[in-house]
Amino acid sequence: GMSVAAAIEATGRHEFSRGIKGEGRGLFCGMGACHDCLVTIDGKVSQRACMTIVDDDMQVLRPAARPDLATGQIADLCSVPHSLTTRTMDVLIVGAGPAGLAAAEVLAAAGAKVTVIDERPSAGGQYFKQPSTRNAAERLSGDEQALSGAALIGEVRDHGVTFLSAT
Ligand code: FES
Q1: Which sequence spans correspond to the domains of the chain?
Q2: Percent of the chain with pLDDT over 90
Q3: In CATH, what number does 91-164 get?
Q4: Between 92 and 31, residue with greater pLDDT
Q5: Buried-most residue among 11, 111, 149, 152 (CB within 10 A)?
Q6: Which atom of ligand 1 lies at the shortest distance from residue 37's CA?
């Protein structure tokens, strides 16, 4: 239930990532906004440790300071899909924060087939800060912003909007 960043921090390591010049980096914003916590997870480069929940058998590596493009290291490490799924909708909204949710609700209420994608595991964005772990849910119980976000997300879902999270 912990993020990768929280789990690493719990071991006492604060500089688990690396800047472009090789300088130590680590947990900074803790909410997917700064890029200071980038690590390589299961061979996939540039993953945000603060936005990724620990999983069994996950391999987390400190990134190379400056990957060697000439060796094809980036191409080897990136997982490029061999095929893409096709989806049909009237409106695609990028970002499930307050603006995206409000737009989705209005458009869906008007009869549009709406899909909302977001890089985070749950809708709400930074403002509505939906908890991604049990621990966070306990800490945010009763938090007005989180509660109003949960209510809006529920209303949007009730309108039949499709959410694609971690996308
Ligand atoms: S700590 Fe800022 S994106 Fe992870």
Answers
A1: 4-77, 91-164
A2: 60
A3: 3.40.50.720
A4: 92
A5: 149
A6: 4
Q: Which two tokens stand for residue 162?
A: 């499709």
Residue 133 contacts by C-beta under 8 Å, 6 or more apart in sequence?
1, 2, 3, 53
Read off the pLDDT of residues 101-160 as tens digits, 9 standing for 90 and up: 999 999 999 999 999 999 888 899 989 988 877 777 787 788 899 999 999 999 999 999
Q: Is it true that 4-77 and 91-164 share their CATH fold?
A: no
pLDDT band at 32 (very low <50, low <70, confident <90, very high): confident
Give CATH for domain 4-77. Answer: 3.10.20
Question: How far away, in angstroms, is 90 Cα from ligand 1 center?
Answer: 33
* pLDDT tops 60 at residue 16: yes
Work out which ligand 1 atom sits closest to the CA atom of 38: 4
| Angle between helix 144-158 and helix 98-109 axes, rounded to 10 deg | 30
Residues whose beta carbon lies within 6 Å of some atom of ligand 1: 27-30, 32-37, 48, 50
Residue 29 makes CB contacts below 8 A (sequence gap 6+) with 36, 50
Mutating to test ligand 1, I would choose from 2, 17, 36 the residue with most ligand atoms within 8 A of its C-beta, which is 36
Between CA 86 and CA 11 the distance in angstroms is 42
Pocket test for ligand 1, best of 15, 50, 126 (most atoms within 8 A of CB): 50
